[in-house]
Amino acid sequence: MGSRSRKLRKAFVPREPAMNLSAHIDELRRLMLEAREIATIHDYFDDHCVPSDVFMASGIRAKHEILISMVHLALKLGQANSPQSSSMLIHLPEYNLWHGPIPTQDGLAVVLYFDDINRGSCASCPFNTDMVHYFRFSIPEGLTEPIDASGVKLAHFSRRDRSDGN
Q1: For residues 15 and 84, which has the higher predicted lDDT (pLDDT)?
Q2: Distance between CA atoms of residues 124 and 134, nearest Å
C-alpha cells in the first residue's frame, strides 16, 4: 500500500471512534427539554452526533408526515420560507429520534424530534445570509393526519434577540 493510500485511509477513520451513542442521544434529549437557547441543541447535535460514523449509520430513512407537516407549518408562519417538497428523515427507533434536512425555497432547515418526549426543534438557514432561525415545537396530542397549512395565518410572532449581538 502506497503512502497516498495510507493517508487517504487515515482521513476516513471515524472522528470519534469510542463514541457512546446512547450517552450522546441521552444528552441531546436532555438538552431538548432543558436548554434555554435552542442553538445549544443544534450545536451539540452538529458537534457530537453528526461527525460520528456510528451515529450516521444507526438510522433508517423513513417518512413521518405529521412531523414534516408541523415543520412546514412553522417554517411558513415564522419566515415565509416555504419547504420545497416532502422530505425523508432519518429515524433511530431504539432512541425515539428523528432527524434530517428539509430543503426550502431559499435555504435548508434541519429538524430534530424525539417521539417519547414529544419535543422537537428546527434550525432554518437561508442560503444568502448567515442568520439562523430556531424554533422548538410539540405535536398536538391526538393529531393523526398531517396539518394542511394552506389556510393558516400567523396571529402572533415574537422574536428574541441574543444579548451578545449574534
Answers
A1: 84
A2: 6
